[in-house]
C-alpha cells in the first residue's frame, strides 16, 4: 500500500504499549509482537516462547519464521480480519491487522501455542520447510521447549484473536483522536501573541475547523474494496466431491495449480473432474483459477505496496511478465495502472 498517513510509533506511547502488550500476553498465554504496515517491529516481543527463541536464533530456520510473519500479515490484510495459520513447525500463529477507517496501519503478531483439540480444523501451513538432518537435530535439541508450549482450544484462540483485533483498533483510534486534539491546542497556543483578541479567536476557530476537516478526511480515507466477496472466502461447492479441490486452492494461493493435481485431490479422473468442474463454476479450470488469482491480486494492489514481482510470487505466477499479461486480459489494464486508478479514487 502507499505510505500510511498513520504512523504507529507517532500515534501510540510505545512504553505504555509495551506494558499493555505484556499484560495481554500473560492473560492470553500467547507471545505478542506489534509491527507497522511494512512489517517492521515497533514493540518488543512479549513473552516469546523458549522454543521460538531458539528457532529464531538459528540463521537457517529464522528465515522461515520471517516468511511466516510476512505471509501471515499479508493474508490478514487481504481478509481484513485476524488470520490463524500454522508456522513451519506446525505451531499456531495469528496475524491481527490494525485497521483504522479501512486503512491498514500495522499488525499484532500473536501465537506460539499448540491446539488442545483433537479435531483441529484445517489450517494452512503458510510456509513449508524441507526436512533435513541438521534441522531435525535442531528440533530434537529443542524438543522439551516444544513440548512446553502453551496449549489452548481452537475456540480460545479465535476468541483471543477477536478480542485483540477489536481492542487494539479501539486503542489506536482513541490515540488518533487524542493526538488531533493536542495538535489543535498546540496550534492555538502558538499564535502570535501580538495579534488582537479578535484575530486570536478567529485564528483559533480556523485551526479548529482545519482539525475537523482533517478528521473528516481520515474518517472517509478509503473507498470500500472492489474485490468480489468470493475472493475473500473459500468457495463452497454445491457438489461436495469437488470441495477438496476448492479447499486446496484457497489454502495454497502461492502455488501454480494444474487440473491433474486437483483431480487427484478429489480422487477422480482428470476428464471427469474437468467436466463437473466446468458445470459447477461455469468456467473451465484454468480460466477459473486465473480469474480468482487476479481478484486476489487486485486486493494486494489496493492494500499493499508490494512490487509486481512480489505479487506475482505470492500468487504463484511463473514470472511478473505473465502476471501482468494475465491481469490485463481480465481487467483490460495493467496492474500498475489499476493501482494508480485506485489510489486516485481513494484520494478524492
TrEMBL record:
Coiled coil: none annotated. Keywords: DNA-binding, Transcription, Transcription regulation. GO terms for molecular function: DNA-binding transcription factor activity; sequence-specific DNA binding. It holds the Pfam family PocR. Residues 243-341 form the HTH araC/xylS-type domain. SUPFAM superfamilies: Homeodomain-like. This is Transcriptional regulator. It comes from Paenibacillus selenitireducens.
Amino acid at each position: 500500500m502507499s505510505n500510511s498517513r498513520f504512523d504507529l510509533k507517532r500515534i501510540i506511547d510505545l512504553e505504555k504499549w509495551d506494558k499493555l502488550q505484556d499484560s495481554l500476553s500473560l492473560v492470553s498465554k500467547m507471545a505478542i509482537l506489534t509491527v507497522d504496515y511494512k512489517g517492521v517491529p515497533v514493540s518488543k516481543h512479549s513473552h516469546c516462547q523458549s522454543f521460538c527463541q531458539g528457532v529464531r536464533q538459528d540463521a537457517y530456520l529464522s528465515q522461515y519464521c520471517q516468511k511466516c510473519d510476512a505471509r501471515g500479515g499479508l493474508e490478514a490484510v487481504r481478509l481484513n480480519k485476524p488470520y490463524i495459520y500454522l508456522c513451519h513447525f506446525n505451531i499456531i500463529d495469528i496475524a491481527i491487522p490494525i485497521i483504522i477507517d479501512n486503512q491498514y496501519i500495522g499488525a499484532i503478531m500473536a501465537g506460539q501455542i499448540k491446539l488442545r483439540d483433537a479435531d483441529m480444523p484445517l489450517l494452512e501451513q503458510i510456509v513449508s520447510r524441507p526436512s533435513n538432518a541438521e534441522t531435525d537435530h535442531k528440533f530434537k535439541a529443542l524438543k522439551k521447549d516444544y513440548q512446553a508450549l502453551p496449549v489452548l482450544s481452537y475456540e480460545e484462540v479465535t476468541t483471543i484473536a477477536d478480542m485483540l483485533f477489536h481492542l487494539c483498533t479501539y486503542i489506536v483510534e482513541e490515540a488518533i483522536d487524542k493526538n488531533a486534539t493536542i495538535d489543535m491546542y498546540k496550534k492555538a497556543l502558538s499564535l502570535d501573541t501580538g495579534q488582537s483578541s479578535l484575530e486570536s479567536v478567529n485564528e483559533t476557530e480556523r485551526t479548529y475547523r482545519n482539525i475537523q476537516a482533517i478528521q473528516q478526511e481520515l474518517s472517509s480515507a478509503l473507498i470500500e474494496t472492489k474485490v468480489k466477496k468470493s475472493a475473500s472466502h473459500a468457495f463452497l461447492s454445491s457438489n461436495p466431491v469437488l470441495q477438496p479441490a476448492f479447499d486446496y486452492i484457497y489454502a495454497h494461493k502461492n502455488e501454480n495449480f494444474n487440473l491433474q493435481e486437483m483431480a487427484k485431490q478429489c480422487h477422480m479422473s482428470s476428464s471427469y473432474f474437468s467436466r463437473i468442474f466446468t458445470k459447477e463454476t461455469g468456467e473451465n479450470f484454468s480460466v477459473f483459477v486465473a480469474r480468482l488469482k487476479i481478484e486476489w491480486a487486485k486486493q494486494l494492489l489496493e492494500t499493499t505496496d508490494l512490487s509486481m514481482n512480489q505479487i506475482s510470487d505470492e500468487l504463484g505466477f511463473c514470472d511478473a511478465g505473465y502476471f501482468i499479461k494475465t491481469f490485463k486480459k481480465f481487467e483490460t489494464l495493467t496492474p500498475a495502472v489499476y493501482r494508480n486508478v485506485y489510489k486516485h479514487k481513494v484520494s478524492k
